[in-house]
Amino acid sequence: MSRRRWRTLAAACAALLGVVYALVPVSIANAVGETSFRNPLVANGADPWLQYHNGNYYLAYTTWNNQLLMKKSPTLAGLSTAAAVNIWSDTEADRCCSHWAPEFHRLTGPNGTRWYYMYTSGRDGTLDFQHLHVLESAGDDPMGPYLYRGSPMPTTWNIDGSYLQLNGQLYLMWSEWESGDQSLWIAQMSNPWTITGSKVLISRPSLSWEIQGGRTEEGPVALQRNGKTYIVYSASSCNTPDYKLGMLTLTGSNPLSPASWTKSPNPVFQAANGVYGPGHNGFFTSPDGTENWIVYHGNASSTDGCGSTRSTRAQKFTWNADDTPNFGSPVSTSTNLAVPSGEQAATTTAVRGAAYRLVNRNSALCAAVAGSSTADGGNVSQQACSGAAAEWVLDSTADGYYRLINRGSNKALDVADCGTADGTNVRQWAWLNSNCQQWQVTSTSDGWFRLQSRSSDKMLDVNGCGTSTGTNIQLWTSLNNNCQQWRLQPVGTVAIASMQSGKVVDVANCATANGSNVQQWGYLGTACQKWTFTHTDSGYYRIVPTHATSSCLVVAGASTADGANVEQNACGGTNSQWRVEPLADGSVRLVARHSGRALDLAGCGLPNGTNVQQWSWLDNICQRFHLMPV
Hints:
Blueprint (H helix, E strand, L loop, with lengths): L2 H21 L12 E2 L11 E5 L2 E5 L6 E7 L11 E5 L7 E13 L2 E11 L8 E7 L8 E5 L8 E8 L2 E10 L2 E11 L2 E10 L13 E9 L2 E8 L8 E7 L10 E3 L12 E10 L6 E8 L11 E9 L5 E2 L10 E2 L16 E6 L5 E4 L10 E4 L8 E5 L5 E5 L5 E4 L10 E4 L9 E5 L5 E5 L5 E4 L10 E4 L9 E5 L3 E5 L5 E4 L8 E6 L9 E5 L4 E6 L5 E5 L10 E5 L7 E5 L5 E5 L5 E4 L10 E4 L9 E5 L1
């Protein structure tokens, strides 16, 4: 029997089975992810800050250069392999260099709920001008894009900023020199980047364990429980193995009064179990909100200092009966730690990121949740390409695969019962950190792709190569036919952010004329930094700026040469058409149809105004981009 005849017979059987799916109860999916991990999470990860938000862990740490980075992963352990994405870079002389101690907080600011990314930086070649800076996200995504908002204290040396929210008021905490002591300070804020009123010194190094190698208190971070407020800070020099954590307790009513703060007489977290100099910490909660965790850096040797040997580590902590934290001791790198509670549990949440439609090559219909169901087990079939039920967020699992989260239901594309047989049904289910919910996106030809199940290596397939609305979608062995090929249609308006610089693709001066240059620029929220994708044929798209909708992103003169300029121009030829190709690290490359060359940052530049061009694929971050909904 020929493979096509066998395929047709099997498809008919699968169609009959589709009736059975409607008659029997939906079976329960099971989680199969890893249940433990070991520290460290990142080898060179000093001054870490980690948060869990809408289905992902987000991690930032000191870079020492002029770029700010972020990692994200649906699992804590996945942060080890997640790609480091530069979400910001700066070449301004007063803040270009030595980026330290990032923190990102979700606050209600003047523009609504936003992420505020605060960091320390200064001038090239010296650390004498380090001071705080604040970025604001354009929306509610920790990955950005971000706008620069300002420096709370631009003319003095100040580092390690963090926020305290208390009784409806926002405060800034930081570390600053005073009479030979590096001490802790606080001030009231009128918004997340502006202080108001007096700066108040609330604590200086005074105890023997705070002055090892230098008189130092730095890295303050707030911790609150049952109406009690603490500031946990790092003490002694980070160049020593005696770097450790101390704690202040708000025992008075006014956080701006030094008398309201009481210092614990002993350190609350210090070297143990082969971990030296543990400090500069942050706090986060487990995915289900039932556990509190500390993230910090530590060294593996007593002779390691304040450099690149400091690694990111995380562990759970508990509370004493009097509501004071019990951090215990740093755990050794040979200790297996249970993953945060809820990481393996069913999770339905609006994962942040760009959404796509999966359009079948054979039928031109989209993979969608039937009936716009929001229930676990909602069937996936091919439908008209409209509505949130036909939109999927492609979210990297940090190890070469993607999970596809439906925009209408916030549930994941799932292989029924983790089946491996041809004809196994595909449905939606709450995210379970399961291989049966992970997919590899593989290019075939032109702008077409296969989606391959991680659990079975079989392909996302339209039953019987049907072309009618409602035809079921399933798994099938690769047949290299059009029924198993899909194009990925970006949905809505996006910014195109460089993985190298964090800056976005921009039409110079927001000009509307054809021939206007295209460059990178820090995100400003202007229409000339926002783009839509319009399909032409064979999975290629015109990329249209929202301020000049009759023009497109074009390779000038239809050149096929490396270094050919990219500009805004008429949408006529194949030099105005691009393939959007998701890569294993969660980024995309944009490939010009006429030349096969990739969109590229000239010279891997970081400054505003760096030219955008085409270049042969070099497999570097200067040719990788992230589509960011704006």
